[in-house]
Each structure stands twice: as C-alpha cells, then as structure tokens.
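seq:
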Amino acid sequence: MKNLCLTALLSFFLAVPVARAADNMKAFPPADEGMTRHVLQLPKQDDESLFRVELIVGKTVLTDANNVYFFGGRIVEETIEGWGFPRYMVKALGPMGGSLMAVDPDAPKVERFVKLAREPHLIRYNSRLPVVVYVPEGVEVRYRIWRAEPEMRPMEVG
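struct:
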C-alpha cells in the first residue's frame, strides 16, 4: 500500500510540469502551411535574470570552405493576442550573401550551417513559458544559453 501511494504521488509531481507545458502551448497556434513551429522548454534556474537565450535561425547548405556566408531575413517578436505571450517569427529566409574571396574552383564543397545576418538575437530567459519560433519549412532553429556573472564591476571614470 505504501509503495502504491508513493508511486501515485511521484507520478502526480512528475506530470505537473508536463501538464503546465501543455497548457502553455494552447496559446501558440499550429504553424501555417509552409511553416514549421519549433518549441524550446527551458529548465528552471535559481536566478533567471542572469541568463539570456540566443535564437539562431539558418539552414545547412553546401558552400566553399573559405568565404563567410549569411542569409537575409530577421526574427520578429510578436505578442499573441489575448495571452500576452511572445512568439518569434521568420516569415522568409532572404537571399544568401557572403564574402567574395577567390576560391579554387576544384576545391570540394563543405556542408555548413549558415545563419541570418545581424547581431545575436538575445531574448529573456523564462522557464515558465516555452520559446516558440515559427520558420519556413526547411529552415533550422538553434539556440545558445548566455550566462552573466553575478558579480558587477565598477567602470573607471575617465
């Protein structure tokens, strides 16, 4: 009997975060035709103000090994009406651009992840809500977690 109660109690506590995440997903509509929805549920941190999430959108393509490439396009934050939750959209991946260094025409092509141009797209770390990104089909979404040091240092007067 003790084992049964313990198992039931443990199952309940393990199911609560899953149910909470499922409830939060009600606010995020399925992706439109030609788009895909990517979802990231962040783990809880003691002080989430010390963290940021970098969203990295791009595509794996064949390129030469020497030049630096990027795609046009941008990540747009939208607020879901009636919920107040943010979602992130990339409506289209623009043309691919890059540096113009001369390359040996016989050099083999390499597979590389080519991301959107611009500065890193950093968003607030919030483990209570999923990070939801809508992108065109065939486009990848990656992320990095940035962490600040808790120590603040003074700047010199100058």
